[in-house]
Amino acid sequence: MNMTPTPAMVRKVVIASVLGNAFEWFDFAIYGLFAVTIARLFFPADSESASLLLTLATFGVSFAVRPIGGVLLGLYGDRVGRKKALSLTIALMAVGTGMIGLLPTHAAIGIAAPLLMVLARLIQGFSAGGEFSGATTMLVEFAPAHRRGYYGSFQMCSQALAFSLGALAAYVLTANLSPHDLDVWGWRLPFLLGILIGPVGWLIRQRVDESPEFVEHTEKVRSSGKSVAKTPLATLVRDYPRAALASIGVAVVGTVSAYVFVFFLPIFAKKQLGLSTADVNLSTCLATVVIVLCCPLAGHLSDRFGRRAILLPAIVAYGLAAYPLFHALVDAPSFRTLLEVQLGVSLLMSFFWGPTPIVLTEIFPVGVRSTGAAVTYNIAVLLFGGLAPFVNTWLVRVTGSNMAPIYYVEASVLIGLAGVLLLPMKTRARSVGLAT
């Protein structure tokens, strides 16, 4: 039986994975871009700094459930299929996003407002926990074997696209609305728009086939008289500890770069360096476009020269450039300096973002692939990514040094390099035969 997908179906899978994933991450992006407004409306405190810390802590809380969502949705994807898991994640994200867009503020309902905000973020976190592994696995398993790095890189394109669109929406609103209108109703518009991810994303994902590699694996296992593994998590821990550690290391440097330079830096530039909200949003939008454009090139190069050959120099270059670029911004904050920093860092980030999805999936066999990618990615995000905005805001506050965040970044670089060195010298996509 020929399981090779048609070019038309591959295109549908790319669209379903990229657009659906972008819709999901759009909601995470706009929370950060409107964090200062949300802090004022939902987490009033004795000082603006304390209010912002509460808002960022709420952002970080959602990451506590991401490993749970990643494990459960990853197990679901490994047992019943990638398609059903992806449809479920996008429906959950729509619920969480709709709640945020419709929530009354603290002034209207008191303590219930921040509690409901936390609940909405927990729902979003659970959903996002399974999104990365589900979308990436789908892309990789539909891709031609010699182009899996290129196709997998579209997962990171979709994340960058989400931040670009979120920053663009924030820029348009902040540049055209008065502070009063922005507080009263303007900030809600992107969240209400995000509700569309439910019906639109679900419809898109219902129109694609199940992964042919997953179907072939399932049929092969069942024809041998066995059942599909019910405990891929146990198999992952028992049989693939080195692969898991390597994946976590690679994911750490990627997630810290995202949550420091794309999520935290705009907040830092506005609150700590005094740059205008409109300028910060515009710079973030332009910088993330660079990632959208360069990730496919990085994925393609990893197909041609190997994953380590691209990841290693990219992470080293990023680590060497990040300090002087960040120092330049702190020393002379301006729109031009911020744009130069974000563009430079984004260019370097692209070359380790691009190969990351394929590294986190091809290192595991198909029977535990979705679970493996979900667990390792979400552990990295929980421990180092989701709390990065809160931790770095706190570090700046307690140390009194605006340079404190860069040391967090450099620590992630060392962890990332260790992860790359744990990878096999030549990483190649595992065949179905290795999954049994």
Written description of the protein model:
There is one protein chain. With 436 residues, the protein is mostly helical. It has a single domain (9-206, 229-422), classed as Growth Hormone, Chain: A (Up-down Bundle). 82% of the residues lie in helices and 0% in strands. It has helices at residues 7-33, 35-42, 48-64, 66-80, 82-102, 106-109, 112-142, 148-176, 179-186, 188-194, 197-206, 212-223, 232-239, 241-271, 277-305, 307-331, 335-353, 356-362, 369-385, 388-399, 404-422. Helix 14 crosses helix 20 and helix 15 runs antiparallel to helix 16.
Gap from first CA to last CA: 19 Å
Sum up the overall morphology in one term.
globular
Q: Compute the average pLDDT.
A: 83
What is the fold named in CATH at topology level? Answer: Growth Hormone, Chain: A
Query: What's the β-strand tally?
Result: 0
In the CATH scheme, the class would be: Mainly Alpha
Q: How many whole angstroms does the radius of gyration measure?
A: 21 Å
Number of separate helices: 21
CATH architecture: Up-down Bundle
Could you tell me the strand content as a percent range?
under 5%
- Range of helix content: over 70%
The CATH superfamily bears the name MFS general substrate transporter like domains
- Total individual domains: 1
Largest sheet: none
Overall SS class: mainly alpha
Low-confidence stretches: 428-436
**Element pattern in H and E:** HHHHHHHHHHHHHHHHHHHHH
Oligomer: single chain
Describe, in short, the structure shown.
With 436 residues, the protein is an all-alpha fold.
Keywords:
436 residues; mainly alpha; Growth Hormone, Chain: A; 82% helix; globular; disordered C terminus
